[in-house]
């Protein structure tokens, strides 16, 4: 299960759609990076650079060559969908997220974390 309480289905892609799926992955990574950057910048202005650092760490992880390589291997070799590849790759790196989920979702109501 992911940190929002639902399971990412184990889906496969066909060999002839691998390149399209990798392009879709790259577009999703770029869109996520843009969104994270906006949050980082907003938090830096409102709360200071020290609080925006968590978003910078997320950006670094998202843009990691190693992570991208692992995802590409799962899509090319195992024919996993990009969504499933991401869930399989990140789950072992973030074992505490489900436990932190309750705390973090509660913080969404805090004034400092609203959009």
What do you see in this structure?
The protein is mostly helical and 115 residues long. Helices cover 67% and strands 0% of the residues. It has 5 helices and no strands. It has helices at 18-47, 49-62, 65-77, 82-90, 97-107. The longest helix has 30 residues, at 18-47. It is elongated. The protein starts with 17 loop residues before the first helix and ends in an 8-residue tail after the last helix. Residues 100-115 have low confidence and may be disordered.
- Rounded mean pLDDT is 83
C-alpha termini separation: 26 Å
Would you tell me the structural class of the helices and strands? Answer: mainly alpha
The major sheet is characterized as: none
- Give the low-confidence spans: 100-115
Radius of gyration: 16 Å
Helix-strand string: HHHHH
* Share of residues in strands: under 5%
Kindly list the characteristics that best describe this protein:
mainly alpha, 5 helices, 115 residues, 0% strand
Task: Walk me through the topology.
Elements: H1 18-47, H2 49-62, H3 65-77, H4 82-90, H5 97-107
Helix pairs in contact: 1-2, 3-4
How would you sum up this structure in a few lines?
By secondary structure, the chain is an all-alpha fold. It is built from five helices and no strands.
